[in-house]
Every structure is written in structure tokens, then in C-alpha cells.
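Researcher: Quick sanity check before group meeting.
Model: Go ahead. Protein one:
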Amino acid sequence: MVAATYGNVEVLKLILMHSEADVNLICGSDKSNALHCAASGGSVNAVDVVNLLLSTGADPNCANANGLCPIDVIVVPPKLQSMRVILGSSWKQLFFCRLLSR
């Protein structure tokens, strides 16, 4: 969760290499997962972290305790507003790919 929040792609890759790592693990009283952390952390590496998590099976439709999905909690620094569009596109692409593969 910390690596996702702060956009540390290399640490996240190391964690995900272990077969017992659960990319959809829910944590804390707000019931957030790593995608929630990546989307709300505001890191300049958020796009890379989100894409990595999605490519390893993270569920973009997982709602937290407040009923919010990761796409609902996207926070980006004021100078990087284009990241909101890119992050949203990543989720939309994954959603449509999963629909087509059924």
C-alpha cells in the first residue's frame, strides 16, 4: 500500500513478484486496496503504478468502505492535471478489454 501511495514502482514490482502477494488486499478501516492508494496518493508515478497493478490483476471495480472505486478517488498535483485523464483512460481500457474477453 505504501509503495502504491508514493509511486515506488520498483518496490511494488518486488512485492508483486512473490506469489503470495495479493494485489487486491483490502486494508484499514476505509477498506481500500493498492489501486485506491495509487489513485489517491498523487504521485508523479501514479500512472505507472496503476498500470502495473491493473496488469497484475488488480480489480478496478473494488469499492472501499465509502462505496468508492479507485477511479473515484483520483488525486493529482495541480501541475499534473493531465494524469487524471490518463488514469481514467487506463481503467476504461481495462474495463472494455475485460468485457470483450468474456
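Researcher: Fine. The other one?
Model: Protein two, sequence then structure:
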Amino acid sequence: MKFLIALAVALLAVVASEARPEVMVKTQELDIAADGTFKHNLELDDGTVARAEGDANNVNGYYKYPTPEGETVEVTYVADALGYHPQGKYVPAQLAKVLNYIRTNLKPE
């Protein structure tokens, strides 16, 4: 019985390692200015990219990553006093409508 458990754990480890290949960082930059503004850039060798810039109150960003199905998800966003506002093909349409309504009709306190 112990042998079967050990074998199952070993097989699971092999399958997990094949499902998640090692990804290396190509570029990583972070610049923070004295006034609190920042710029961040990250690129991985699997095609993943994340970029953001702004300050404590407003951030504009972009990210993309490959899916296991071979597609690329790309999202641009704004994060501000009214929340996180993503835009992109993979952002559900109803969510985009609600977030757009919030952004255009509500004012931060």
C-alpha cells in the first residue's frame, strides 16, 4: 500500500512538472520617483508581459499572457478611486458595462 501511495505521488510530481514549464524573466524594471510616481515593466520568456505606471491614486496598465490552449489574453486597465477597470477581448461584456457605468456616473468621495 505504501508503495502505491509513493508511486502515485511520484507520478503526480512528474505530471505537474510537465504541465508547468519553467519560465525565465527576460526584463524586469521598476522606477519609483521621489514624488511617488512609478513605472513597472516585466517580460517573461513565455510571452507574458506586464506594464504599469502611475501613482498611489491612479494606475494605467497592460498585461498579456499565453493560455494553455495557445491563445493570448491581453488586458489594458485603469485603477483609480472608483476601482479596477479592465478592457479587452476576454473581459466579459456585462462586467465591462457595469464598470463603465461606475466610471462615468459615480464620483469618488
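Researcher: One line on it for the slide.
Model: Residues 2-19 form the longest helix (18 residues).
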